Structure prediction request, 138 residues.
Amino acid sequence: MHDASIEGAASWTMAIFGAIAIALGGLGLLQPELMLALLDCEVVDDDARSDGDYTLAFMTTSSVAAINMGAYYALAAGTNWRSFYRWTIPFRCVTVSVLTCAVLLERAPIGFLGVAAWELAGALATATALHWDRRRAR
Prediction:
């Protein structure tokens, strides 16, 4: 049985980004209006929402997804699951592309570029750390 401990720079990138994802997901659940404001979305009072406005429902699902993703990252970091780290890199780049296109096509506010930047930073940090860890192990 392998003891759960974070080993190497790549594992630390996963642990740190996982913790941030959990924290931001929790913020989205507890304070969805604050998260909407951070994303540069218009914040509407609850009494002004129409019956068909599912903004808060989508905030809830996005926040739960962020918490789950953060948990996956933290669990992967705790077990040093490096193949998982490698798989996150291209998928995070897909997220960057989709969110950037959503902003460019005016389907999302400019604040979503912050999420894209966060994903790109995570992908680059993990890729760099994997490379660094590999070189250090030689």
Remarks:
- Residues 9-137 form one domain.
- The radius of gyration is 17 Å.
